[in-house]
Design goal:
The protein contains 9 helices and 5 strands. The chain is an alpha/beta fold. The longest helix is centred in the first third of the chain and has 19 residues.
Length: 208
């Protein structure tokens, strides 16, 4: 085999490996395409509800406008992952085609055990998968100098074969022009979240 062919083969192998190992578990996602036929939902806490935004500037609404489809906002300010479990069944019975799952931030703020947080997230993912949904997991940074949640989100995404968007407030948190307070984005910050999700989901949109 010619040297050029070897280089091409090596490039393809390395690229394929990167696609599989990148956060989110590669392209072999559970329920892609989804079997469920309900509306898209965003299931989470205040970051989903749009705390700090004006009017309909929450990220689900902005993302829905971008994709020209309705995304039902099931965000509830203050929710921990345990609170999410308490209303999980009602959400799953909607048979959502796509679930944007963003919980765990309040667990971190309240210093709840990480093992409990990620076990709860895993149970939510399993239930939505049972409903036939495609799940998008939105990572939430832990407090402190280093992000102790990052590795756990990657591990969970790979184990459950879901699409992970790591550290959803990356580039937004600590940027005053994008924040309404120390924790929550403003309209422009939520627009950044919607833009980021749009970029990640656009290649998969024909299957969703």
């Amino acid at each position: 085999m010619r040297r050029g062919h070897w280089l091409l083969l090596l490039t393809l192998l390395l690229t394929g490996g990167w696609l599989w190992l990148r956060p989110g578990g590669g392209t072999d996602f559970t329920n892609l395409p989804p079997a469920a036929r309900g509306e898209w939902i965003a299931f989470g806490d205040s970051l989903t509800a749009g705390y700090g935004a004006n009017g309909e500037a929450d990220y689900p609404t902005q993302l829905g406008r971008h994709f020209q489809r309705k995304i039902l906002n099931l965000g509830n300010s203050g929710d921990t992952t345990t609170d999410g479990l308490a209303r999980l069944e009602e959400a799953a019975q909607l048979q959502p085609r796509v679930v944007l799952l963003c919980l765990g931030g309040n667990d971190t703020l309240r210093r709840l055990p990480p093992d409990e947080t990620f076990a709860n997230l895993g149970r939510m993912i399993d239930r939505f998968h049972q409903a036939g949904s495609f799940v998008v997991l939105l990572g939430v940074r832990s407090t402190g100098l280093t992000d102790s949640n990052a590795k756990r989100f990657v591990q969970l995404a790979k184990a459950k074969r879901v699409l992970l968007v790591p550290n959803i407030l990356d580039g937004i948190l600590f940027t005053p022009s994008l924040m309404s307070d120390q924790i929550h984005p403003n309209d422009k910050g939520y627009a950044k979240i919607a833009e980021r999700l749009g970029e990640v989901l656009s290649p998969l949109l024909p299957q969703l």
